[in-house]
Amino acid sequence: MGTMKINPEHEFDGQFSINTSSSRLLDPEEFRRQGHMMVDFLADYFQNIKKYPVLSQVEPGYLKKLLPDSAPYKPELIEKIQEDVESRSILTSIHFTRCTHVRKILDSPLVERDIFPGLTHWQSPNFFAYFPCTSSTAGILGEMLSAGLNVVGFSWIASPAATELESTVMDWLGKMINLPKTYHFSGGHGGGGVIQGTTCEAMLCTIVAAREQMLEKVGREKVDKLVVYASDQTHFSFEKAVKISGIKLENFRVIPTTKDIEFALDPKSLSRTIEQDIKSGFIPLFMCATIGTTSTTVVDPLKLLCEITKDYGIWVHVDAVYAGDACICPEFQHFLDGIENANSFSFNAHKWLFSNLDCCCLWVKDPSALTNALSTRPECLRNKATDTEQVVDYKDWQLSLSRRFRALKLWLVLRSYGIDNLRNFIRSHVKMAKHFEQLVSMDERFEIVAPRNFSMVCFRVSPLALGSKQVNKFNMELLESINSCGNIHMTHALVGGVYMIRFAIAAPLTKYKHIDMAWEVICNHTNAMLDIN
């Protein structure tokens, strides 16, 4: 068969037929020009973010009506694309301190473009919902640098700096929270850390590691006998991880919590449940404890729980998804008492350590449990460093093969702000939460319904202020009214049958004036609803 000849005129040279100063896929000068545009765009966004409704006010399916049915065949200018991202106006004349005319505003031509109307603004100083997902200049620039370099550090040889920087910053962070040396690469005990995408990934990896470790001992035919434990306040991502791991859902023991112990996981209830399972022929495998539950930030009694599980060889994972960040401050490190007896520990640096989504930090005492369960060794990835076991190959510490250079942004954050400043940022949010807590406590119509451990306050309009009205229904309608106006955004929890409003403070732009404004909004809506009812 003859060799096919290609007409040089038909070869693709990486350019597009469009009238721009440069139209190559990756042209340094065009990247510089467009990059400046995007940085200016984001800087303007942060400067004006408080002027947007915090919670998106669009209806489901709004974007489908605005976008074409197919992608464009011809290139479009970045200027045109950017126009479709933002609103026609930044609403410069409107501050959402009152909600009377919000619906009229949202129906006006001021909000007509594609993307921004459909955004809930998580970096807004008036965002108090869920747990935070914080950004910072260093975090954003770290993401930009990581995306620009675009290395795929699945193994050490694929990009040695990516692996070694990750190992280093995980040790840095472990020391910052006073994590026992058994979890450190540098601790001399065989432990180590890895940056995962999310908490669900960390939970799933550790469940799979525990499963494989146990099945090696008892035989693979016993997989249907494996049991996992958590409380009814454990994050719902744990249930998802259990499902994916192959553990039967009927073997997932959700232990009820009570108000008597502030809805923490009760060691006595755990012990009784484990004993019942053993008598019934089941094999206790895994227990998830929580430092700072999603609903109320309660802290499970880790030390007591670990004293129980150690007698049964149960893998203990500690989920500190949000509160773990606070543990860089010495005054919060007592919440980690007992961590030395757990097997793994994780928290999200993108929650409250200003490292941008996604950045879940997971430490394990025995990395071989992870690598034995998750490693693959194809011929195409063999190399001397791996074969001689001189290095860490992070592909064997996670679910996927490919991985982003997440360590770069964490490194930039830790170096750009330093431990002292990061502690002060967190402390300032805690002080703001105390201030809000005082505002709530001083108004006899409201009550605090859960102890404040960190920077989140759980409150509601009290039954005493409502008389015969349905308390849960009133607070639910109050929250809906507040969120619909766009001034602030909060979410709720339902714990022990009590509907409560969660006020979580950690957005990087939030100041005391935003706390005071939020309280004013809450009071105004409460006044209006009490008058109506």
Automatic annotation (TrEMBL):
GO BP terms: amino acid metabolic process; carboxylic acid metabolic process
Q: Which cofactor does it need?
A: pyridoxal 5'-phosphate
Cite the Pfam families for this sequence. Answer: Pyridoxal_deC
Task: List GO molecular-function terms, semicolon-separated.
Answer: L-tryptophan decarboxylase activity; pyridoxal phosphate binding
Identify the GO cellular component terms for this protein. Answer: cytoplasm
Tell me the InterPro entries matching this sequence.
Answer: Aromatic_deC (IPR010977), PyrdxlP-dep_de-COase (IPR002129), PyrdxlP-dep_Trfase (IPR015424), PyrdxlP-dep_Trfase_major (IPR015421), PyrdxlP-dep_Trfase_small (IPR015422), Pyridoxal-P_BS (IPR021115)
UniProt keyword terms in alphabetical order: Decarboxylase, Lyase, Pyridoxal phosphate
Q: In this chain, where does the modification N6-(pyridoxal phosphate)lysine occur?
A: 351
Q: Which family does it belong to?
A: Belongs to the group II decarboxylase family.
Name the chain's protein: Uncharacterized protein
